[in-house]
Amino acid sequence: xxxxYLKEFFIALLFMGAANPxxxxxxxxxxxxxxxxxxxxxxxxxTDVNRFVCQGPIKDVMFSQDKGIKIKISHSxxxxxxxxxxxxxxxxxxxxxxxxxxxxxxVVYTLIGIxxxxxxxxxxxxxxxxxKIEKNLSLFLGLPLEKKILKLIKxxxxxxxxxxxxxxxxxxxxxxxxxxxxxAKRDILVEGEGLGVREYVVGLKDGHxxxxxxxxxxLKPALTNSPLAIAIEEPLLKTGDKTRVFIVERRNPxxxxxxxxxESVTDEQAEMTPSIKRQxxxxxxxxxxxxxxxxxx
Length: 297
Description:
It is built from three helices and 20 strands. By secondary structure, the chain is mostly beta strands. It folds into two domains: about 10-25 and about 130-285, no CATH class; about 35-125, Immunoglobulin-like. The strands form five sheets. A seven-stranded antiparallel beta sheet has the order 1-17-19-15-14-13-20, covered by helices on one side. A hairpin with a 5-residue loop joins strand 13 and strand 14 (about 180-190).
């Protein structure tokens, strides 16, 4: 079945401040990072003291004590030592792998420690944040800022969002315009790229027959802090119509949160929110939705 396209999709690129995109700084570390919910093989020193590091307190470490291992826990650290055996004049170091179940900040990490004659190892137990950042960086690798913005708008519009994005459902209403209601639908954060997008749903209030939306209408502190681009699905609203607005922003993890959306939406208003399960529109600019019209969710 052929995709049915909408007439127009307006995008205003609002490059404010520096034109260069915000990238997360790439750090180089010799430490091994492991993540929860997967069994991870790690090389450990059979001769020196190894260290497990948690972002919160380490509550316990379960292991086979009959394999000659000693562990000492100190707040967010666990120190692991394979005991050596003395046979005559020789010192024999362990070569036997061992399982470690580390309770780190109420999350269990499963490690298979492989003892080797290597220097002491530091194993960092990650919440998964580093992995998400790495995936996000790979999705936008080599793209200029404008292409990143267009890609993010397309993903939000078609609801084709990678699992590495952080998505918060909001569903709150703001009273900002005399002629229209605005519902903040969701907030999408691309951690590591310094980008995010807020999706709004807009509809006419009773007693108004039409309203032509402008990108400038949404440059309000109540809606966005650091806008880079605004995309409006359908700029001309008529009675009974609804449209979606996407605001792409710079996101600095150290800055204060986006403006609070304090007015809750009613159940009736929530039912009026247009479904995400719509086909994308076709636009002239950079063929934003080329090849993206067959997504079904």
